[in-house]
Amino acid sequence: MPKYHSQVTHEKDQLSLSWLKYWNIINFRGDIKDPIFLASIEKGTKLKLPITECSTLLEDGNKIIWAGPDDWFWLSEKMSASDMYQSLKDSCKGTNSAVTDVSGGYRILRLSGGRVGEVLAQGCPLDFHSRHFKVGQSAGSVFFNTSIWVWKTSDEPIYELLVRSSFVGYVDLLMKTICKEFSIAKS
Fold it and tell me: Which has the closest alpha carbon to 139: 127, 122, 130?
């Protein structure tokens, strides 16, 4: 998987981009007004479900990304996709819900550094200024012609993008082209 490393020597300009490995991704859907569904998700994930629009739960090795009023992504580097899937299927049994392993369908791109907002803004219409996009927020959007989910994990700043696997090459090429302005070389 492609990796990028900044060649910029000024600390404020440093930028790092890398495709994360070993993260499994489960998509699940259900009604947040159903207390049984909420309890089932918390039992299956052992995490509190973020129910506020455009929010995330960021815990060591686990993330739950709000994707819509009844739609979430659960990402984990600690659990296998089959264990994640089975845990949710078992805990949600009897509820009106859907659980799908989408690990093969998505990749995660991590971007960090002082100018990451400028890089993202070249292909995404969201406002990445720290006044508007805060740690723990998420949003569905586009990066040029690719649909993405993006969330902020740190004020450093660090952003992560959920990208469909079939668009990884396209996003990789765009990043290579865009980042020339920021002195980033592909290694």
Answer: 127
Rounded to whole angstroms, the Cα distance separating 10 from 109 reads 23
- % pLDDT > 90, the chain: 78
Q: Which domain holds residue 126?
A: 4-20+105-186
Q: Which of 186, 165, 172, 111 is nearest to 144 (CA)?
A: 172
User: How many domains does the chain divide into?
Assistant: 2
Q: What is the pTM of this model?
A: 0.88
What CATH number did the domain enclosing 44 receive? 3.30.70.1520
Residues 161 and 143 in one domain: yes
Secondary structure letter of residue 179 according to DSSP: G
* 82 and 114 both lie in a single domain: no
Cβ-based neighbours of 107, under 8 Å, separated by 6 or more = 1, 19, 20, 162, 163, 164, 165, 168
Predicted confidence (pLDDT) per residue in 74-110, tens digit: 999 999 999 999 999 999 999 999 999 999 999 999 9
Q: Do residues 99 and 117 both lie within one domain?
A: no
β-strands 62-68, 24-30: how paired? unpaired
